[in-house]
Amino acid sequence: MALSQAAPAVRLGARRGRGNLAGYLYLAPAGALLLAFHVYPLFYGAYVSLFRWGLTKQAFVGLSNYWGVLHDADFWRSLLVTVYYVIGVVPVEIVLGFLIASLLAQKIRGRAAYRLVYFLPYITSMVAMGLVWSWIFNANFGLLNSLLRLLHLPPQRWLLEPRTILALLHPGGAASATAGPSLALVCVAIVTIWYYTGFHVVVFLAGLTAIPTEVHEAARLDGAEGWRRMRWITLPLVSPTTFFLAVIATIGAFQSFAIVYTLTGGGVSGGAEAGGPLGTTRVATLFIFTVFYNEFRVGYATAAAFVVFAILLGLTGLQMRIGERRVHYLGG
Amino acid sequence: MRISRTAVHILLLCGAVATTFPFLWMLSSSLKSNIEAIRFPPTLVPQEWLWQNYVRAVAAAPFPRYFLNSLIQSTGVSACVTLTSALAAYAFAFLEFPGRRIIFGAFVTTLLVPPEITLIPNFVVITALHWYNTFLALIIPLGASVLSIFLLRQVFLAIPRDLHDAARVDGCSSGYFLWRIVVPLSGPGLAVVGLLAFLRAWNDLLWPLVATSTETMRTVQVGLLAFSQNVSTEYTLLMAATVMAILPTVAAFLLAQRQIIDGIGTTGLRG
User: Is B174 in a helix, a strand, or coil?
Assistant: First the structure.
């Protein structure tokens, strides 16, 4: 009796043993790459940030890179620019994405074609389309200034303009990052919104079509129509999608590099240094990149990256906490 | 909130025009003469279609080389990501082993580490490995993607477990099952993962900018940016170059747009 019970257990154990090894083997390639290029850099970066580090390791400086970053006016200015940019981009992307998706969700003719068109910018390269937009925004021969001229309006400097829109409307205003977003940054934000809206449309459309039709039917039977149905049925039920998009759009906008760099740094309309006119488009990633790539202060740049990472983590945590309270899950 | 069908179409068409206009302007500018490109008032349809702008753009910079580099990099990354993701997703979807949930959680957690943190240490690492300015540096660090693993795991989970158990009882090895059953059943899913990895690599700027130094190793995006600084007054050539730079991705997208959009819509794969 004892023997016959023990035997299958042993066999099962042996089989599970083989399963073990196989499972780890299948995970090994992806796991090794993730470990080497996503996890290890986190710790190695923390190490690098404690050194004065140029082309190679120089001297251990403890936390003084962090101290320097936290007292660097340029760094805080880049963070302020980032905040303007995130606030300008994320809500517009989400609202536009939701509006277009809810129009498309009404079983409209040509839905697939619209979806295709709206999504197109998202699969192209930011560098290529950034160059196209800087041609449109070109201060001398660009299309926008030609249109202004046709309307007998004064031409603008667009991506080269460090002044805010308010200052442009009321001449005499000072040009500085603390005065508000520059016209150049607004242009960068518009291009960003143009690039990402299709992505939001597609994700919202998936979220909207996942709402069971019975829910809408029931609401209609109860006399909820139009705006009321939108406010009390659609918006709450699509809120997990909205929340998800808000979180990843914020993270994405915080990490924007290629668009900003192409439009106001490395591209044709770029001035002498990356970050546009008077640094009014130098977002945090661009600050880090410049310190690392142009000045080769590797330790300092890494410390700045960690400070930005910490701020972003805090922000995402905050969004999660707000989301927990505000997001409604069907049947949850 | 009740809007008529016509109004809906008008709104959507306005949005569609705003979305596509930069593409039209790019095409139009790429075919104009330099004089027409800066003429006032502007024209949308070129008076004379100068296809030789494309020939001149290709001749003005080593674009064939950039394209070859991007093709090697993107194909390499795509193959690498598809392979590593399929293997890992298979383990997560079908195999039993201790710590499976914890390891999956750990994989997902790596998504939290942002590119600006990994950029500089990875640069230091590839320099130490003497990979700097080689294809190894362009491909290997991008060779695994957690979102792709996640997407493929979802695809694999749709395959009935009974099939797996029955095959294993019949003595089918796990590798054989993956290769002969799972892979053929997951064609579209694998294609989407491969294509998305290709697009990501093709469109990337930051990593190739940092990981390469010579002109012969430049990818299309890095080369395009350098080109834009050199020909800053010849917008027609620049627009011809941008058309060529987005052509492969637009073609790939049009071929598999439904699968790509669905893949992104359901997983929220971004960038």
Answer: helix
